[in-house]
């Protein structure tokens, strides 16, 4: 894998980009200390990048997977049709096994498979070009969708609002602009003076490392807190709204998002604070009836035990590390989608999103 360090230049956040016939992704594991791109040439290496969190965040994982399929096709394009097909099937399987919770991964793979099926009679070279064009479209479409969601969400925030967010649902979690942070960007663009309170988001610290960094880059006022401070701030009237992203929404409106989101939703309900979820339609899984069926990724205990070689946890202690939790729909004030806001989401409201154009 090639590494490219970007020094002394404006850090434009292009989480994923196509450059010199390869995919480049910002290495999010080392932000904010360093800003580097890694280059990817195959589905297998992209799957590795998803698994080890070079790229993370549901929509960004989907875009990476789309490029993973295209890269595999380009790699195999000079093979026989049979070898091409079998290599592609392996590529799809490896990508599908990279992470389990964000449904955008499976959504993007299905979209790429449908495109492949539509041109299956063509030569591997032609198929590869068609798949690459589709990956470019998945990326461009993601940014358009985020801007549409941003506009709908911004209208919900009053001027001067102090808004809490959890994890990172920003440009870094998408192809650009962001879902929850896209709402903040759109609100600022609309002239609203908002300020952001970022939960640090233990154990991977997406809030402290990524959300705080993104907001500082944009000069949007941001205050970092540890996850256990949210209730205190809410009780003291210091939070006006919560906006988070999501990895998968079930057909009844239950929301899977970064571990700790459920806790924030319960607290918001207790304090009568609106709790909004920014959710592109690609994150809604109509095949899953309720949140109980959403697969929750269990990550390495090393993330909880300490950092790198330093362990603050007592040796020998049993550790759990579920990476996501499920917030029941009844705690969600509104789902902010590219088609508008679904207040008090339920099965009917969600079904309607897919009925209208
Ligand atoms: O483990 P991560 O960093 O991939 O988890 C990311 C989240 O939980 C985000 O909130 C979610 O994917 C929405 S991103 C727009």
Molecular structure report:
With 357 residues, this protein is α/β, with parallel strands linked by helices. The protein folds into 2 domains: 3-146, translation initiation factor eif-2b, domain 1 (Four Helix Bundle (Hemerythrin (Met), subunit A)), CATH 1.20.120; 150-355, Translation initiation factor eif-2b, domain 2 (Rossmann fold, 3-Layer(aba) Sandwich). Helix content is 39%, strand content 18%. It contains 11 helices and 17 strands. It has helices spanning 43-51, 58-76, 81-96, 104-118, 124-154, 180-189, 206-217, 230-235, 261-270, 302-305, 347-355; strands spanning 3-5, 16-19, 22-26, 36-40, 162-165, 195-199, 222-225, 241-244, 248-250, 255-258, 275-278, 284-285, 306-307, 310-311, 324-327, 334-337, 340-343. The strands form 4 sheets. It has a 7-stranded mixed sheet. α7 (206-217) links the parallel β6 and β7 (222-225). It is globular, with a radius of gyration of 20 Å. The model has no long low-confidence stretch (mean pLDDT 96). Bound molecules: 5-S-methyl-1-O-phosphono-5-thio-D-ribulose (MRU). 5-S-methyl-1-O-phosphono-5-thio-D-ribulose is lined by residues 56-59, 102, 167, 169, 173-174, 179, 206, 245-247, 257-258, 323.
Determine Rg (CA atoms, Å).
Answer: 20 Å
Q: With helices defined by DSSP (H or I, 4 residues minimum), what is the helix count? A: 11
Strand content: 15-25%
Secondary structure category = alpha/beta
Low-confidence stretches: none
Bound molecules: 5-S-methyl-1-O-phosphono-5-thio-D-ribulose
């Amino acid at each position: 894998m090639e590494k490219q360090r970007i020094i002394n230049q404006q850090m434009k956040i292009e989480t994923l980009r196509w450059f010199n016939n390869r995919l480049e992704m910002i290495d999010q594991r080392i932000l904010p200390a360093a800003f580097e791109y890694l280059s990817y040439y195959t589905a297998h290496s992209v799957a590795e990048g998803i698994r080890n969190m070079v790229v993370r965040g549901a929509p960004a994982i989907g875009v990476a997977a789309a490029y993973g399929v295209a890269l595999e096709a380009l790699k195999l394009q000079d093979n026989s049709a049979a070898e091409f097909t079998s290599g592609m099937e392996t590529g799809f399987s490896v990508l599908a096994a990279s992470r389990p919770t964000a449904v955008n991964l499976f959504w993007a793979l299905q979209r790429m498979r449908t495109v492949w099926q539509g041109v299956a009679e063509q030569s591997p070279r032609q198929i590869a070009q068609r798949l690459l064009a589709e990956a470019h479209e998945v990326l461009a479409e993601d940014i358009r969708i985020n801007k549409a969601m941003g506009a709908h969400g911004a209208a919900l925030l009053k001027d001067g609002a102090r808004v809490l967010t959890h994890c990172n649902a920003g440009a870094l979690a998408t192809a650009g602009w962001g879902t929850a942070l896209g709402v903040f960007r759109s609100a600022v663009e609309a002239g609203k003076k908002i300020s952001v309170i970022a939960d640090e988001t233990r154990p991977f610290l997406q809030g402290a490392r990524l959300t705080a960094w993104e907001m500082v880059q944009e000069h949007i006022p941001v205050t970092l807190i540890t996850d256990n401070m949210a209730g205190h701030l809410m009780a003291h009237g210091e939070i006006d709204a919560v906006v988070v992203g999501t990895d998968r929404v079930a057909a009844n409106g239950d929301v899977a998002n970064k571990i700790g989101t459920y806790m924030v939703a319960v607290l918001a309900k207790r304090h009568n604070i609106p709790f909004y979820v920014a959710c592109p339609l690609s994150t809604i899984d109509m095949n899953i009836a309720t949140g109980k069926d959403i697969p929750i990724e269990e990550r390495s205990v090393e993330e909880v035990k300490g950092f790198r070689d330093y362990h603050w946890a007592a040796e020998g202690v049993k550790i759990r590390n579920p990476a996501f939790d499920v917030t029941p729909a009844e705690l969600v004030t509104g789902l902010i989608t590219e088609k508008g806001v679904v207040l008090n989401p339920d099965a009917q409201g969600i079904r309607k999103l897919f009925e209208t154009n």
